[in-house]
Amino acid sequence: xxxxxxxxxxxxxxxxxxxxxxxxxxNGHTLAMVVxxxxxPSHRGKKIHAPPVKNxxxxxxxxxxxPSSLKKDTPDGDDFYAAFQKAHIDIAIVVAxxxxxxxxxxxxxxxxxxxxxxxxxxxxxxxxxxQHALLSGDLETGVSIMALVPELDAxxxxxxxxxxxxxxxxxxxxxKTLAQIGKEALxxxxxxxxxxxxxxxxxxxxxxxxxxxxxxKSGEIKWHLSARxxxxxxxxxxxxxxxxxxxxxxxxxxxxxxxxxxxxxKSQLAPGTVTGASxxxxxxxxxxxxxxxxxxxxxxxxxxxxxxxNGYSFKVGDILGL
Length: 322
What we know:
It is built from eight helices and 17 strands. The protein has 322 residues and is of the alpha/beta class.
């Protein structure tokens, strides 16, 4: 029977961990360790929170490791490497762990390291594939089950599952969908992986794109973009870092974007100009109007625009982003 390790940290990895635990219990395998990022403060910096994968591992009474580093010649990295060797892991499953697995780990498991990646590889290798698919207006995305190699997300692919991206999807809903698809694809692959009978295909050398890690500043809306690009930005930035701009020097977060009057005769208004505020906040872009149904002032509650206007005002002609 096989000894498994699971590397993952955020909510996206939780369904795969659930599936792997069920698979192990049903088939007599052992989930020997769950590896995730250390506990961190919340976004407001007040309370320390455990990552979602750790919370589930605690529920299952699984062994948990949270090394601050995996690198050689670091105390945590070397201690964890020794523990990993001692556990005699046969196969490791990696889902959005948040760190690159060093080369020295990859060669010591008989069945390798298997990664669940949230894109149709080789498109959107990297840290934020779901967000970048939305940002780019992709019509489809999916999940790839791949062999982990030292080069970033460049391993051979065992299985790909593709789905259309709905117009109503944002990064929250799309992540939930892909997480479940990843779980199902992993469970289909595991029996064949353990018998080494699952074929794998090298990634194409064409069509490679990279999804850079999102930063807080990634959420700022660039009003010189098109209305469609701004809507896609708002879809991609949920729940973090969120889409935001500035109004009278204060941070203003904007939600539920939709395009209006795209491809109308070019307006003389500068991009970022408020064109209306009632049920919606309407703003000029490079090629039309984009509207927002909800907003949030820094440190305040998220509210429909109509309710926000009870204690806050926008004037037609105000320019956002300043």
